[in-house]
Amino acid sequence: MPDAASHLPAGARPRVLHVIADPRRRGAQSLARDLDRELRRRGQASALRALAPHPDDLGHPDAARRGGAGAPGGAPTGVLGPGRLHPRTLRALRAAARTADVVVAHGSGTLSACALALAGTRTPFVHVSPGDLRQRTASPARRLHTGALLHRAAAVTALSEEARAVLLDRFRLPGTVVRTIPNGRSADRYPPVRDAADRRAARARLGLPAEGLLVAWVGAVTREKRLDLALDAVGRMPDVRLAVAGDGPLRAALESRYECARAIFLGDLADPAVLYRAADALVLTGDSGGVPGVLIEAGLAGLPVVAPDTGPVRAAVQDGVTGVLVPPGDPAACAEALAKVLAREGPALAAAARAHLLPRFELGAVADAWQGLLAEVARPAYT
Known about the structure:
By secondary structure, this protein is an alpha/beta fold. Helix content is 39%, strand content 14%. Strands 3-2-1-4-5-6-7 form a seven-stranded parallel sheet, with helices on both faces. Strand 9, helix 9 and strand 10 (263-267) form a beta-alpha-beta unit. Helix 8 (227-235) crosses helix 13 (331-361).
């Protein structure tokens, strides 16, 4: 893994505070955790705080497994207050920021809190835009509100060039403020499956059938993730099972609707790496304005992918070379692509995927870009 620490003098390594909306490990939270851990590994002072607990985790007996205890092998994530914009949360965030030279606000759920809590302070913040904001800012009022908050950031990062173009055009942000830094994951955490015995062991760990073809789906079970499309697609394939890793408001309805032995709902997994080793392919069906972390994780794990043909996804999946892209919202095309991958093309696609992703989305290269940006925008003299 590349290590930029030796190339940056101590004075160019400001103290960093990463802020996430809640302690779960998904989406923006995953990148924040990985980046925090990598910066600390490189000798840079870095801390991670969540604004508030997620409502689903309040009083939940498995809160640690659901993300409150941090990433596997990591320290628990400190929670600042009872709600994202609660006065107590904002005061705690402002106090925590005094010990940092720059704050990184990961995801849309942190933008308002950081803009409010850091107003009038000397500590700048960088906002990590989660993807294409057009859907989230469809109304003029929402667009004006979000734009005003974005203009308070010292820098805004986009996960793809397409997402950067939206930020520039829709919110009239200066070109020098908006940078493209892709999503990233540590290759060490997502090793490819070694052999059939390794795959069977991974399946046993998750309580999955030892034999037969298995497709993985990973994500929040929400409307925009379109788990129903994956269930429809696999429903057309009598010899294939679908393992669903994730939770959300639509889980109960979908689990009831598609109740059968071939759809296995695992709930949230603290570490999806074991599912990637257990599966024969991954299917992605949701709408995304960025490059989903699950595509990077699966590709690094040597798992062939079927995904919707959208601009940001094309940055991670080369159709016919590292995976198969299908028209969005088409379960029949998705089933056809899965059948092709599972029948004969999977191993070659998987090997090409890992080779394509390593120089572009591996955490080491992504952290290099982040260290340069953080040193550039941090408050002068790091006092």
